[in-house]
Fold each of these.
Amino acid sequence: MKLITIFYIINATLLLLHEIESAYEREWELLKLPGKITGFLLIHIPIILVILIGLLEIEKTTLIGAIIGIIMGIGGIIPFIVHKVIVRRKEHFSSICSNILIYLNIISGIGTIILSMSFFA
């Protein structure tokens, strides 16, 4: 297994765990997303499909894999930006577990971006 595949899997796992926590925290209310839980679940269908397709493409070292890898890497940084910079609420995403997920996701996201960009070198 390639190093990029390992980083991608770790990053995707951390993102999916964050999304599970997001459902618990009712993130659609925090971010004022339409459709409540139904809308929240529906927007995750294409996200999960892209994550899975990206894994296959990353492993094959394709251009689309590199692009999805970069997008997923950015996705690993977004929870920090949203929950620690833009929408800071003490009662949401502040547990030790949540913070560990968010900060590990930054590391795995940056690693995924760097390794995905190496496809272009």
Note: The mean pLDDT is 94.
Amino acid sequence: MWKEFKEFALKGNVVDMAIGVVVGSAFSKIVTSIVNDIIMPLVGVITGGLDFSAAQIVLKGDSALKYGSFIQNVIDFLIIAVTLFFVVKTINVVKKKCEKPAEPVEEKPAEPTEKEILAEIRDLLKK
């Protein structure tokens, strides 16, 4: 059982996926920082000093709908999605360039069928 688990865990796909998750979470932190520290302050300046991160609707007591935080998370998601789209698109272009084009196969003239050969022999015998 240990051997089977080791084979599974060390397969290329599992290791690649683990690396992708780690890099993805680090990338997510970078995007969150860009949104919180660069984009949202600029949006605040454009909107006259409105700070979206603190935007909320207070309900009863300590309850609040924090729609500003939600807006920042939506912007995070959109930036990550667009970035990943361009990364995948670039990888696909590079893969296409790296693949060898299929060598054209020369078509050999079709060999005569048995019926055609017999007809040719018959014609020769008639002459």
Note: The two ends are 79 Å apart (CA to CA).
Amino acid sequence: MASSSSIAKKARSKAEADFATWLMMAKLGSFDDLPLNAQSFLTNYRARLEMMNEAESTVLAVREVYGAYYTEMGGLGIAPEPQARKPTTERKVVRIQRPPKTLSTPSAARSSSGRMIQKSLVALLIFASMVALIVTYRFMTQ
């Protein structure tokens, strides 16, 4: 049997994704196409919107869906609260720095101009093919 924490993680991510999908479908006018359990969760969500703001109502709705999914997936008891992410006081940002491209040798200059010629040739071939297709189409339709 899967551990309680792995069931909780799976149930939580599935609940968040499903609720967002249901909400979008309802906003697009497909409320009646949703499963009955989704319709009931969205009805509760809309009712709560009259008493609280959207963020609070969304959190509660996702919590309800999470609890239902936790039980369906074999979790025992009440679904555990997800652990809050620990804020980091130190920012660890890694920036990738690429060395500047230099054309130090004549062969490098030739290879870059060769690439440019190759790209131009490809574009020319595509253009010529398009012209040939248009001329053929006109010839065939007349």
Note: The chain has two domains: 4-72, 108-142.
